[in-house]
Protein backbone atom coordinates (compact mmCIF):
# COMPACT_ATOMS: atom_id res chain seq x y z
CA UNK A 1 0.00 0.00 0.00
CA UNK A 2 1.37 3.39 -0.95
CA UNK A 3 2.28 5.52 2.05
CA UNK A 4 -0.01 8.52 2.46
CA UNK A 5 1.69 11.87 1.92
CA UNK A 6 1.80 14.44 4.70
CA UNK A 7 -0.37 16.79 2.62
CA UNK A 8 -3.02 14.12 2.12
CA UNK A 9 -3.01 13.28 5.82
CA UNK A 10 -3.48 16.93 6.71
CA UNK A 11 -6.34 17.23 4.22
CA UNK A 12 -8.08 14.17 5.65
CA UNK A 13 -7.55 15.48 9.16
CA UNK A 14 -9.11 18.82 8.27
CA UNK A 15 -12.04 17.02 6.64
CA UNK A 16 -12.55 14.86 9.71
CA UNK A 17 -12.40 17.92 11.93
CA UNK A 18 -14.94 19.70 9.73
CA UNK A 19 -17.28 16.72 9.84
CA UNK A 20 -16.92 16.52 13.60
CA UNK A 21 -17.78 20.20 13.92
CA UNK A 22 -20.82 19.76 11.68
CA UNK A 23 -22.03 16.82 13.74
CA UNK A 24 -21.55 18.81 16.93
CA UNK A 25 -23.35 21.90 15.62
CA UNK A 26 -25.67 23.23 18.29
CA UNK A 27 -28.83 25.32 18.22
CA UNK A 28 -29.40 27.41 21.34
CA UNK A 29 -33.16 27.95 21.81
CA UNK A 30 -34.18 30.63 24.30
CA UNK A 31 -37.54 31.78 25.66
CA UNK A 32 -38.94 33.34 28.85
CA UNK A 33 -41.68 30.86 29.79
CA UNK A 34 -41.36 27.91 32.21
CA UNK A 35 -39.93 24.66 30.86
CA UNK A 36 -42.93 22.45 31.76
CA UNK A 37 -44.45 21.45 28.43
CA UNK A 38 -47.79 20.51 30.01
CA UNK A 39 -48.55 24.08 31.10
CA UNK A 40 -46.18 26.38 29.18
CA UNK A 41 -46.90 27.22 25.54
CA UNK A 42 -43.30 28.22 24.78
CA UNK A 43 -42.02 25.34 26.89
CA UNK A 44 -44.10 22.88 24.86
CA UNK A 45 -43.08 24.44 21.55
CA UNK A 46 -39.38 24.34 22.45
CA UNK A 47 -39.49 20.75 23.64
CA UNK A 48 -41.18 19.31 20.56
CA UNK A 49 -38.89 21.38 18.32
CA UNK A 50 -35.89 19.86 20.09
CA UNK A 51 -37.16 16.30 19.82
CA UNK A 52 -37.92 16.53 16.10
CA UNK A 53 -34.69 18.29 15.14
CA UNK A 54 -32.46 16.00 17.20
CA UNK A 55 -34.35 12.94 16.04
CA UNK A 56 -34.02 13.70 12.33
CA UNK A 57 -30.69 15.55 12.03
CA UNK A 58 -27.21 15.55 13.56
CA UNK A 59 -27.95 18.92 15.15
CA UNK A 60 -28.10 19.34 18.93
CA UNK A 61 -30.73 21.65 20.47
CA UNK A 62 -30.01 23.19 23.86
CA UNK A 63 -33.07 24.72 25.56
CA UNK A 64 -32.83 27.81 27.75
CA UNK A 65 -36.29 28.41 29.26
CA UNK A 66 -37.56 30.79 31.95
CA UNK A 67 -35.44 33.74 30.85
CA UNK A 68 -32.17 31.90 31.48
CA UNK A 69 -30.56 33.94 28.70
CA UNK A 70 -32.38 37.20 29.48
CA UNK A 71 -35.67 38.93 28.77
CA UNK A 72 -37.36 38.97 25.36
CA UNK A 73 -35.60 42.13 24.20
CA UNK A 74 -32.25 40.60 25.10
CA UNK A 75 -33.16 37.34 23.36
CA UNK A 76 -33.98 39.21 20.15
CA UNK A 77 -30.61 41.00 20.28
CA UNK A 78 -28.81 37.70 20.87
CA UNK A 79 -30.60 36.11 17.92
CA UNK A 80 -29.64 39.00 15.65
CA UNK A 81 -26.01 38.66 16.73
CA UNK A 82 -26.10 34.88 16.29
CA UNK A 83 -25.24 34.20 19.94
CA UNK A 84 -28.56 32.39 20.32
CA UNK A 85 -29.76 30.77 17.12
CA UNK A 86 -33.51 30.34 17.82
CA UNK A 87 -35.79 32.32 20.11
CA UNK A 88 -39.52 32.45 20.72
CA UNK A 89 -40.81 35.91 21.65
CA UNK A 90 -44.00 37.94 21.46
CA UNK A 91 -44.08 41.74 21.79
CA UNK A 92 -40.31 42.12 21.50
CA UNK A 93 -40.51 41.32 17.78
CA UNK A 94 -41.94 44.78 17.12
CA UNK A 95 -38.67 46.32 18.35
CA UNK A 96 -36.86 44.99 15.29
CA UNK A 97 -39.81 44.87 12.89
CA UNK A 98 -42.26 47.74 13.44
CA UNK A 99 -44.89 46.21 11.17
CA UNK A 100 -45.39 43.39 13.71
CA UNK A 101 -47.27 45.91 15.85
CA UNK A 102 -50.32 45.61 13.60
CA UNK A 103 -51.10 42.23 15.17
CA UNK A 104 -51.86 44.05 18.44
CA UNK A 105 -54.61 46.24 16.96
CA UNK A 106 -57.49 45.76 19.42
CA UNK A 107 -60.41 43.58 18.35
CA UNK A 108 -58.89 42.93 14.91
CA UNK A 109 -59.18 39.14 15.36
CA UNK A 110 -62.69 38.01 16.34
CA UNK A 111 -61.32 34.69 17.67
CA UNK A 112 -58.10 32.63 17.64
CA UNK A 113 -59.13 30.45 14.71
CA UNK A 114 -59.34 33.52 12.46
CA UNK A 115 -55.91 34.62 13.71
CA UNK A 116 -54.47 31.20 12.86
CA UNK A 117 -55.85 31.32 9.33
CA UNK A 118 -54.45 34.81 8.76
CA UNK A 119 -51.02 34.10 10.24
CA UNK A 120 -50.63 30.75 8.48
CA UNK A 121 -51.75 32.19 5.15
CA UNK A 122 -50.42 34.74 2.63
CA UNK A 123 -50.49 37.64 5.09
CA UNK A 124 -48.37 35.79 7.64
CA UNK A 125 -45.89 34.79 4.93
CA UNK A 126 -45.63 38.37 3.68
CA UNK A 127 -45.11 39.73 7.20
CA UNK A 128 -42.43 37.09 7.85
CA UNK A 129 -40.60 38.05 4.64
CA UNK A 130 -40.77 41.73 5.58
CA UNK A 131 -39.49 41.11 9.11
CA UNK A 132 -36.64 38.98 7.71
CA UNK A 133 -35.52 41.89 5.55
CA UNK A 134 -35.87 44.31 8.48
CA UNK A 135 -34.19 42.25 11.18
CA UNK A 136 -32.15 39.38 9.76
CA UNK A 137 -34.45 36.99 11.65
CA UNK A 138 -36.47 34.39 9.78
CA UNK A 139 -39.93 33.71 11.21
CA UNK A 140 -40.23 29.94 11.14
CA UNK A 141 -43.72 29.81 12.66
CA UNK A 142 -46.29 31.71 14.67
CA UNK A 143 -47.44 30.56 18.07
CA UNK A 144 -49.88 32.04 20.55
CA UNK A 145 -49.29 33.71 23.88
CA UNK A 146 -52.94 34.30 24.72
CA UNK A 147 -56.06 36.40 24.20
CA UNK A 148 -56.13 39.36 26.56
CA UNK A 149 -59.14 40.31 28.71
CA UNK A 150 -59.97 42.98 31.30
CA UNK A 151 -60.38 42.36 35.03
CA UNK A 152 -61.24 44.82 37.78
CA UNK A 153 -62.35 44.95 41.38
CA UNK A 154 -64.97 47.71 41.17
CA UNK A 155 -67.85 46.65 38.93
CA UNK A 156 -68.94 44.38 36.11
CA UNK A 157 -67.96 45.70 32.69
CA UNK A 158 -70.45 45.00 29.90
CA UNK A 159 -69.79 47.97 27.61
CA UNK A 160 -67.08 50.64 27.32
CA UNK A 161 -69.29 53.01 29.32
CA UNK A 162 -68.69 50.79 32.35
CA UNK A 163 -64.94 51.50 32.13
CA UNK A 164 -65.31 55.24 32.70
CA UNK A 165 -63.32 56.44 35.70
CA UNK A 166 -61.48 53.14 36.22
CA UNK A 167 -57.69 52.91 36.27
CA UNK A 168 -56.22 49.94 34.41
CA UNK A 169 -52.67 48.69 34.59
CA UNK A 170 -51.24 48.40 31.09
CA UNK A 171 -47.87 47.42 29.71
CA UNK A 172 -45.62 50.44 29.11
CA UNK A 173 -46.43 50.25 25.39
CA UNK A 174 -48.08 53.22 23.61
CA UNK A 175 -50.50 51.00 21.70
CA UNK A 176 -52.02 49.68 24.94
CA UNK A 177 -52.17 53.16 26.43
CA UNK A 178 -54.09 54.43 23.40
CA UNK A 179 -56.44 51.44 23.51
CA UNK A 180 -57.48 51.99 27.14
CA UNK A 181 -57.82 55.74 26.60
CA UNK A 182 -60.05 55.07 23.60
CA UNK A 183 -62.28 52.89 25.78
CA UNK A 184 -62.75 55.77 28.21
CA UNK A 185 -60.65 54.43 31.10
CA UNK A 186 -57.38 55.67 32.58
CA UNK A 187 -54.30 53.70 31.46
CA UNK A 188 -51.58 53.35 34.07
CA UNK A 189 -48.30 51.76 32.93
CA UNK A 190 -46.94 49.52 35.70
CA UNK A 191 -44.04 47.03 35.48
CA UNK A 192 -45.21 43.42 35.64
CA UNK A 193 -43.41 42.71 38.91
CA UNK A 194 -45.33 45.51 40.62
CA UNK A 195 -48.82 44.52 39.44
CA UNK A 196 -49.92 42.56 42.56
CA UNK A 197 -48.97 45.44 44.85
CA UNK A 198 -50.63 47.99 42.53
CA UNK A 199 -53.87 45.99 42.64
CA UNK A 200 -53.70 45.44 46.39
CA UNK A 201 -53.07 49.09 47.24
CA UNK A 202 -55.57 50.54 44.77
CA UNK A 203 -52.99 52.24 42.57
CA UNK A 204 -55.02 50.64 39.78
CA UNK A 205 -58.54 49.20 39.76
CA UNK A 206 -57.87 46.53 37.17
CA UNK A 207 -55.53 45.04 34.61
CA UNK A 208 -55.59 43.09 31.33
CA UNK A 209 -53.97 39.74 30.52
CA UNK A 210 -54.69 36.29 29.09
CA UNK A 211 -56.71 34.03 31.38
CA UNK A 212 -53.79 31.66 31.88
CA UNK A 213 -51.73 34.55 33.26
CA UNK A 214 -54.60 35.77 35.44
CA UNK A 215 -55.10 32.34 36.98
CA UNK A 216 -51.45 31.28 37.07
CA UNK A 217 -50.50 34.41 39.02
CA UNK A 218 -53.55 34.34 41.32
CA UNK A 219 -54.79 37.70 40.08
CA UNK A 220 -58.32 36.32 40.23
CA UNK A 221 -57.98 36.34 44.02
CA UNK A 222 -57.44 40.10 43.89
CA UNK A 223 -59.98 40.94 41.17
CA UNK A 224 -63.70 40.20 41.36
CA UNK A 225 -64.78 40.80 37.75
CA UNK A 226 -63.57 39.34 34.45
CA UNK A 227 -64.85 40.54 31.07
CA UNK A 228 -64.16 38.24 28.13
CA UNK A 229 -63.76 40.98 25.56
CA UNK A 230 -60.65 39.45 23.91
CA UNK A 231 -59.24 42.83 22.99
CA UNK A 232 -55.83 41.61 21.79
CA UNK A 233 -54.73 38.28 20.33
CA UNK A 234 -51.06 38.07 21.34
CA UNK A 235 -48.77 36.30 18.86
CA UNK A 236 -45.57 34.37 19.49
CA UNK A 237 -42.82 34.53 16.85
CA UNK A 238 -40.53 31.52 16.53
CA UNK A 239 -37.49 32.98 14.75
CA UNK A 240 -34.01 31.86 13.69
CA UNK A 241 -30.87 33.79 12.81
CA UNK A 242 -30.84 33.93 9.01
CA UNK A 243 -27.06 33.53 8.59
CA UNK A 244 -27.15 30.40 10.74
CA UNK A 245 -30.18 29.09 8.87
CA UNK A 246 -28.46 29.53 5.51
CA UNK A 247 -25.36 27.73 6.80
CA UNK A 248 -27.36 24.52 7.22
CA UNK A 249 -27.92 21.85 4.62
CA UNK A 250 -31.13 21.87 2.62
CA UNK A 251 -32.22 18.71 4.43
CA UNK A 252 -31.64 20.23 7.87
CA UNK A 253 -33.47 23.43 6.90
CA UNK A 254 -36.49 21.40 5.81
CA UNK A 255 -36.56 19.55 9.14
CA UNK A 256 -36.26 22.81 11.08
CA UNK A 257 -39.09 24.38 9.09
CA UNK A 258 -41.38 21.44 9.76
CA UNK A 259 -40.38 21.18 13.42
CA UNK A 260 -41.12 24.88 13.90
CA UNK A 261 -44.58 24.66 12.35
CA UNK A 262 -45.42 21.74 14.63
CA UNK A 263 -43.96 23.67 17.57
CA UNK A 264 -46.14 26.70 16.83
CA UNK A 265 -49.22 24.49 16.66
CA UNK A 266 -48.23 22.77 19.90
CA UNK A 267 -47.84 26.13 21.63
CA UNK A 268 -51.28 27.20 20.45
CA UNK A 269 -52.83 23.98 21.75
CA UNK A 270 -51.24 24.31 25.19
CA UNK A 271 -52.32 27.96 25.37
CA UNK A 272 -55.90 27.06 24.46
CA UNK A 273 -55.92 24.32 27.10
CA UNK A 274 -54.58 26.64 29.81
CA UNK A 275 -57.21 29.21 28.82
CA UNK A 276 -60.08 26.74 29.16
CA UNK A 277 -58.65 25.30 32.36
CA UNK A 278 -58.05 28.75 33.85
CA UNK A 279 -61.50 30.04 32.97
CA UNK A 280 -63.14 27.08 34.68
CA UNK A 281 -60.92 27.53 37.74
CA UNK A 282 -61.44 31.28 38.24
CA UNK A 283 -65.21 30.85 37.96
CA UNK A 284 -65.14 28.05 40.54
CA UNK A 285 -63.09 30.30 42.83
CA UNK A 286 -65.85 32.92 42.73
CA UNK A 287 -64.76 35.36 40.04
CA UNK A 288 -67.71 36.86 38.18
CA UNK A 289 -67.21 36.22 34.46
CA UNK A 290 -69.08 38.16 31.79
CA UNK A 291 -69.03 37.38 28.07
CA UNK A 292 -70.15 40.43 26.02
CA UNK A 293 -72.71 40.03 23.25
CA UNK A 294 -71.79 40.69 19.62
CA UNK A 295 -73.42 44.13 19.87
CA UNK A 296 -71.46 44.97 23.02
CA UNK A 297 -68.19 43.79 21.47
CA UNK A 298 -68.88 46.07 18.51
CA UNK A 299 -69.03 48.99 20.95
CA UNK A 300 -65.62 48.06 22.37
CA UNK A 301 -64.16 47.74 18.86
CA UNK A 302 -65.65 51.02 17.64
CA UNK A 303 -64.23 52.91 20.63
CA UNK A 304 -60.75 51.36 20.75
CA UNK A 305 -59.74 50.70 17.16
CA UNK A 306 -59.85 54.21 15.66
CA UNK A 307 -57.57 55.69 18.35
CA UNK A 308 -55.04 52.88 18.04
CA UNK A 309 -55.09 52.79 14.23
CA UNK A 310 -54.57 56.56 14.05
CA UNK A 311 -51.59 56.34 16.41
CA UNK A 312 -50.20 53.30 14.61
CA UNK A 313 -50.39 54.92 11.16
CA UNK A 314 -48.22 57.72 12.47
CA UNK A 315 -45.84 55.23 14.07
CA UNK A 316 -45.46 53.10 10.94
CA UNK A 317 -45.25 55.96 8.45
CA UNK A 318 -44.63 54.56 4.96
CA UNK A 319 -45.26 51.04 6.33
CA UNK A 320 -48.82 51.87 7.40
CA UNK A 321 -50.22 49.78 4.53
CA UNK A 322 -49.67 46.75 6.78
CA UNK A 323 -52.73 47.88 8.73
CA UNK A 324 -54.92 47.68 5.63
CA UNK A 325 -53.37 44.38 4.54
CA UNK A 326 -54.17 42.83 7.92
CA UNK A 327 -57.74 44.10 7.94
CA UNK A 328 -58.26 42.73 4.41
CA UNK A 329 -56.79 39.36 5.40
CA UNK A 330 -59.09 39.13 8.43
CA UNK A 331 -62.14 40.00 6.32
CA UNK A 332 -61.15 37.33 3.80
CA UNK A 333 -60.66 34.71 6.53
CA UNK A 334 -64.09 35.45 7.97
CA UNK A 335 -65.68 35.20 4.50
CA UNK A 336 -64.12 31.82 3.72
TrEMBL record:
NCBIfam families linked to this entry: dctP (TIGR00787), TRAP_S1 (NF037995)
Signal sequence extent: 1-24
Highest taxon of source: Bacteria
Gene Ontology cellular component annotations, sorted alphabetically: outer membrane-bounded periplasmic space
InterPro entries: DctP_fam (IPR018389), TRAP_DctP (IPR004682), TRAP_DctP_sf (IPR038404)
Record keywords: Periplasm, Receptor, Signal
GO BP terms, alphabetized: transmembrane transport
Protein's cellular compartments: Periplasm
Keyword Signal among record annotations: yes
Lineage: Bacteria, Pseudomonadati, Pseudomonadota, Alphaproteobacteria, Rhodobacterales
GO molecular function: carbohydrate binding
Name of the protein described by the UniProt record: Tripartite ATP-independent transporter DctP family solute receptor
Amino acid sequence: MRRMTRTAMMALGALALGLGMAEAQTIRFGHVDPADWTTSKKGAAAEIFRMIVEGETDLTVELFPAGALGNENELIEQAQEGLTQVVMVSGAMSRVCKAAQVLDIPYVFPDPTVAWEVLDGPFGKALADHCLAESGLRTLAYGETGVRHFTNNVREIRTPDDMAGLKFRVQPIPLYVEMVKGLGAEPTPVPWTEVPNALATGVVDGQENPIGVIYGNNLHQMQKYLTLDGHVYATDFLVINEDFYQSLSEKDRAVIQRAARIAGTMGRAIQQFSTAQGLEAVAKDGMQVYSPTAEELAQFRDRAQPAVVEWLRGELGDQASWIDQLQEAVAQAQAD
